[in-house]
Design brief:
By secondary structure, the chain is an alpha/beta fold. It has ten helices and 14 strands. β5 and β6 form a beta hairpin. It binds phosphoenolpyruvate and manganese (II) ion. The site of manganese (II) ion has 5 residues, from loops.
């Protein structure tokens, strides 16, 4: 339930309301905007008499909200959330491109890709160390060593790093990682989400292969309910009947999620399409639709990549993409 207070509401009446709600075991989340103050009532609001609240002088409006996600809900938090990843901001007008290989393969590979994407003004470096592969016989990632090499590339370039966690037992390895990625396959690994909620690390949460937007936001809610509000959502394509592309990029999710949540939303056109030639047009489309950033797979030798070569851009193609994206950024849609 949300209570919208009148401007300059009487403090004594407000305190009486707060005391009464607390006696009903209701937690209150205040959100003060420029013109309005909103109280988010969290708990079993079934016991709260909506008509009683509505009748108070200090109350402009009261609404029961249907959505089960409260922390992630824009109704409680009208301003865009800005996530700060070691000095690099995403959200609320801060657009970033995260780039790097699907998997870390060697020191030379990750450092050379990191240098080139940095030159093209990527804000963060990605690279998989633990890889969720469909086949157990495929390259599984360099694991712990992969994280060490990412940290090496971070030292050389200064770019904050993003890498995927697949299992809670590995969490101690991620201490120096700047942003932890939860992959599509783990979007509903609720125990993992709960533990990440207890950390204060920025979390890049990818949409599950067949998840609705509400399910996506409920997963963000799991992290936020633990106290970690640094969540960035990533649309990475969903499963449909179409087989010409690896997945189907749900572009409409961008403006729709913007109305539902205050969290930043980035788009991964690499996994969404599976085809390098579609990465640039879909990056432009996602940027135009209002995304807060992009996640792009870049490899110095895509033909010999150990993972996801067909969807990886060369550093030159990435440089071209980054320039074109920056050109259209001023014209991007940004209504909420
Ligand atoms: C990845 O980013 O390399 C990855 C495995 O992505 P997803 O979880 O979206 O498939
Ligand atoms: Mn990949």
């Amino acid at each position: 339930m949300i209570v919208i207070l009148k401007n300059d509401s009487n403090e004594k009446q407000l305190n009486n309301l707060i005391t009464w709600l607390k006696s009903l075991d209701i937690d209150i989340h205040f959100s003060k905007g420029k013109n309005t103050t909103i109280m988010g009532l969290i708990g079993d609001t079934e016991v709260v008499d909506i008509d009683l609240i509505n009748a108070l002088d200090i109350v402009e409006d009261v609404k029961r909200i249907q959505e089960p996600y409260k922390n992630a809900n824009r109704k409680f938090h009208p301003e865009d959330t800005i996530v700060d990843i070691n000095g690099v901001k995403i959200g609320g007008g801060n657009f970033q491109i995260i780039a790097g290989p699907c998997s870390v393969e060697s020191e030379e590979q990750i450092c050379s890709i990191a240098e080139s994407v940095k030159k093209s003004r990527a804000g963060l470096l990605r690279g998989g160390a633990f890889k969720p592969r469909t086949s157990p016989y495929s390259f599984q990632g360099m694991r712990e060593k992969g994280i060490e090499l990412l940290l090496e590339a971070k030292k050389v370039t200064g770019l904050p790093i993003v890498t995927e966690i697949m299992d809670l037992s590995h969490l101690h390895l991620f201490e120096e990682v700047d942003m932890i990625q939860v992959g599509a396959r783990n979007m509903q690994n609720f125990e993992l989400l709960k533990e990440l909620g207890k950390t204060n690390k920025p979390i890049l949460l990818k949409r599950g292969l067949s998840s609705t937007l509400q399910e996506f936001l409920m997963s963000a809610e799991y992290i936020m309910a633990g106290g970690n509000e640094n969540v960035i959502l990533c649309e990475r394509g969903i499963r449909t009947f179409e087989t010409a592309t690896r997945n189907t990029l749900d572009l409409s999710a961008i403006p729709l999620l913007k109305t539902m949540t205050h969290l930043p939303i980035i788009v991964d056109p690499s996994h969404a399409t599976g085809l390098s030639k579609l990465v640039k047009p879909m990056s432009l489309a996602a940027t135009a639709a209002g995304a807060d950033g992009l996640l792009i797979e870049v490899h110095n030798d895509p033909v010999h990549a150990l993972c996801d070569g067909p969807q990886s851009l060369t550093p030159e193609a990435f440089d071209d993409l980054a320039k074109c994206v920056n050109n259209i950024l001023p014209f991007a849609f940004n209504d909420k």
